[in-house]
Design a protein that fits this description.
Two copies of one chain form a homodimer.
Chain A (H helix, E strand, L loop, with lengths): L5 E3 L2 H5 L6 E3 L17 E14 L2 E12 L6 E8 L4 E8 L11 E3 L4 E3 L2 E9 L6 E2 L15 E10 L2 E10 L2 E9 L6 E7 L3 E6 L8 E9 L4 E2 L1 E6 L4 E9 L10 E4 L4 E3 L2 E9 L5 E8 L7 E4 L10 H4 L7 E9 L2 E8 L3 E8 H7 L3
Antiparallel strand pairs in A: 1-2, 2-27, 3-4, 4-9, 5-6, 7-8, 9-10, 11-12, 12-13, 13-14, 15-16, 16-17, 16-18, 18-19, 20-22, 21-22, 22-23, 23-24, 25-26, 26-27
C-alpha cells in the first residue's frame, strides 16, 4: 500500500533482529506539529500509538493526541483534566516546590495524588495511500466521564461482524481501566462502558469468534507480585469477560524482560493467530515482537520470537518525550506484508512494512 | 439461632459504635487447635474468614484454614506451595540471612519473588445451633492449579436459584485473583475458573438477579493510583463480568480511611441492599460497617454508616497473627438479626449478633 520510497532500518544490524524492517522514508508520518490543539492555551506534545483500521478504500488511524496546558509560570506545572460534573476540561497548577516526584515525564506523584502531565484524546486521520493522512479537526472520542478524567489513550480497533469495536485505555483517579466503543462509519461512536476494570490495559479483541466465543488479550497488573503478564479471556457479548487465563509473562534477560502487553489486534494465519506484542527491558526500551497462538485454542502459545521484529533505532524512535520506544496499537495485513503503524518515543507516529514471511521466520516457522 | 449465653461487646463504649453488638460467650468459636493439620509436618496457624451458608437445617461454614510447615531450623523459613505439574504441596526453605523483607507476617518479599508464609484451603464445618461446629476432615476446596499455588482464601457463598456459588481468592505468583466454584450439597464441588483477574479480591455475588442481570461487588487494585475501592459489575451468567463501575472508596480520617472491600453477601431489605463491608485505617485496624445500595440500581449508594458496627475490642480480636482485625465473609439474617461469623486477628473465628434495626440505625434509617 505504501508507494513512498522506504529505507531499510538499522535494527537488524544493531540488535540481532532476525526480520527485515522497511521503514517509510517519510517517517515520522505524523508529528505533534501536524495537530492543532483543542484550545488556544494548550499545546500538543505527542501524537502516537494509533488504532488502525481499513475502512472502505481508506486507512483510518485513531490518533492518541496528548496535550497539556502551555506552561507560562516557571514555578508551577499546570495540568488539565476532565471534570465530570461540569463536563469540561479544567486546569490546575501544581507548585514545583512541593514534595512531589516529577522524575517520570508522564506523571506527577504527590503524597496525596498521582496526576498526569498530559491529557489524551482520540482523533481520526484518513489516508488513501496509507502514508499521507488527512487529520480531522474534531475528536472521535475524548474524556467524557469519571473513568476518563485524565484522558483516553491507545485505541485498538477490531472489525467484528461489520462493526468496528474500539477499545481504549481510560485513565482517572479511579485507576487505569479499558473501555469499549463501537462505530460503523467512524463518524458516530457509541460507548459501551468499562470492560476491564483497574488496573488493566493493552486490550486487543480477536476479530472473530472462536467456537462461538469472543476472545481478548489483556494485561492486568498485580501490584503484590509485581506482575505485568498477558492474559486471555472470553466473552459471550464483548461486554462481559471471564474465564481469565494467564497466557505469557516476561522473560529474564530478554528484550521483554520487564513488561509485556498485547499491541496489535491478532490476525489469523495458517499456522495460528499471530500477535505482535510489545516488551520493555529494564531500561524501559520498548520493542515489538511476535507470538503465535493456537488457531482453535488461543490460550496456547505455539511459538514466541526470541528477537523483536522492530526495535527503536532511528533518531525519531530513540529521542522524544519518552525515548527508546516503538509501540504499536495496530497494523494492516496487506499482500503478505504487515503495515505497522506505531508510536515513536511517545511523540510521533511512524510506519514500517515487515513481510509476513519474515515475521513467521522470527517465530521459527 | 444462638442459645449460648452472650456478652455485650465493649465496642460501643470504646469506639463510638452506634450499634449494639452481642458477642457469643463461647468466642472464639473455632480456633487453630480445633483443626487437624493436613499433614504431620504442618501446623495450623489460623482458621478464619469463613464463608457462610444455611443448608437444610444446618449452618455451614467454609473455613479458611491457614497452615505452614513446622519450623525446625532457626536459620530458614520453610514455606509451602502447590506445584501444579505434580499436583502436590511442596516445601521450600528461605534462608533468613538473605536480603528479604519479613516485616509483614503474611509475606516474605525477596528481591526476586514474593512468597506467602502460609497456605490456605477451605474446610467445611457444620452446626445445628450455629455455635458448636463439627469440622470435617477433608477440605472442600484446596489449591489445585497454577492460579492457586499459594492457596485459596476467604470464601463467600451465595445461594442463587438453588445452587450455592462459592467465590474465593486464588493466590499465586500470577497474582491475587478471584475464582468461582459451585455446589448443591456441600459434598461435591465444581470449579468454574477465574472470574476476576488480578489484582482483585473481596468479591461478593448478589443472591438474585436484578432486572435480569447478576451483580457482584469486587475490589480491584490500581497500583498506579494506590486505589483500593469497591466496584460493582454485572453478568449474564456469573462467569463473565462487565459494565464495571466504581461504587465507593475510602474516606479520609475515618475507620475506613485506608482500604475497603465487600465482606458479607449483600441482603435485601425494604430500604435496599445492605452490604456489610470491611474497612481498614492507617494502622491496619479492620472494622465492619454497613452501606445501603439502591434495590433496583445497586450501583447507587443510598447511605453509608459513619461508624462501624463491629470493631476489634476483645482480646481475641485485638491479639493474634495479624492483630486488631475483625473480618467477615458472611452472615445469616435470622429473625431480624444479623448472625455474623468473622475472622479475628487472622487467627480464629468468632460469632456475634447484631440486630437489623441497629444496623439500619447505623445507616441513619
Amino acid at each position: 500500500m505504501c508507494s513512498t520510497p522506504a529505507h531499510r532500518g538499522d535494527c537488524c544490524k544493531r540488535s540481532n533482529c532476525q526480520v527485515n524492517v522497511f521503514r517509510c522514508g517519510d517517517n515520522p508520518i505524523i508529528k505533534p506539529n501536524d495537530i492543532k490543539p483543542s484550545r488556544d492555551d494548550f499545546e500538543v506534545i505527542g501524537v502516537f500509538n494509533p488504532g488502525v483500521a481499513r475502512f472502505s478504500k481508506e486507512v483510518i488511524l485513531l490518533l492518541r493526541v496528548a496535550e497539556r496546558p502551555i506552561q507560562r509560570d516557571p514555578n508551577v506545572v499546570r495540568v488539565a483534566f476532565h471534570d465530570a460534573a461540569s463536563d469540561a476540561i479544567v486546569t490546575k497548577d501544581i507548585a514545583k516546590n512541593i514534595e512531589a516526584d516529577f522524575s517520570d515525564p508522564r506523571l506527577i506523584v504527590t503524597p496525596n495524588a498521582t496526576l498526569l502531565t498530559s491529557i489524551s484524546h482520540l482523533k481520526p486521520a484518513r489516508s488513501e495511500d496509507g502514508v499521507h493522512f488527512r487529520i480531522e479537526q474534531d475528536a472521535a472520542l475524548a474524556a467524557a466521564n469519571e473513568y476518563e478524567s485524565f484522558g483516553i489513550e491507545d485505541a485498538r480497533i477490531s472489525l467484528i461482524d461489520g462493526t468496528y469495536y474500539i477499545d481504549y485505555v481510560a485513565v482517572s483517579p479511579y485507576g487505569v481501566s479499558t473501555a469499549l466503543a463501537s462505530t460503523k462509519d467512524f463518524r458516530t461512536f457509541e460507548r459501551h462502558g468499562v470492560i476491564f476494570c483497574p488496573e488493566n490495559k493493552d486490550v486487543v479483541l480477536f476479530p472473530e469468534k472462536i467456537h462461538g466465543r469472543y476472545y481478548a488479550l489483556h494485561r492486568p497488573v498485580s501490584s503484590l507480585f509485581s506482575k505485568h503478564d498477558i492474559w486471555i479471556s472470553e466473552s459471550p457479548d464483548l461486554l462481559c469477560w471471564g474465564n481469565h487465563r494467564r497466557l505469557m509473562g516476561r522473560r529474564d534477560n530478554s528484550w521483554d524482560e520487564a513488561k509485556i502487553g498485547a499491541s496489535a489486534v491478532p490476525f489469523r494465519t495458517k499456522a495460528g493467530w499471530v500477535e505482535i506484542y510489545h516488551g520493555a527491558d529494564r531500561n524501559n526500551r520498548y520493542c515489538l515482537g511476535a507470538v503465535l497462538l493456537d488457531a482453535d485454542q488461543p490460550w496456547k502459545v505455539i511459538a514466541r520470537a526470541d528477537q523483536p521484529i522492530l526495535a527503536p533505532e532511528t533518531d525519531y524512535e530513540c529521542d522524544g518525550f519518552f525515548s527508546n520506544v516503538v509501540f504499536s496499537c495496530g497494523l494492516i495485513l496487506d499482500q503478505e506484508k504487515l503495515n505497522v503503524y506505531y508510536g515513536v518515543a511517545d511523540t510521533s507516529i511512524a510506519y514500517a512494512q515487515i513481510t509476513l514471511d519474515a515475521t513467521m521466520a522470527s517465530l521459527g516457522l
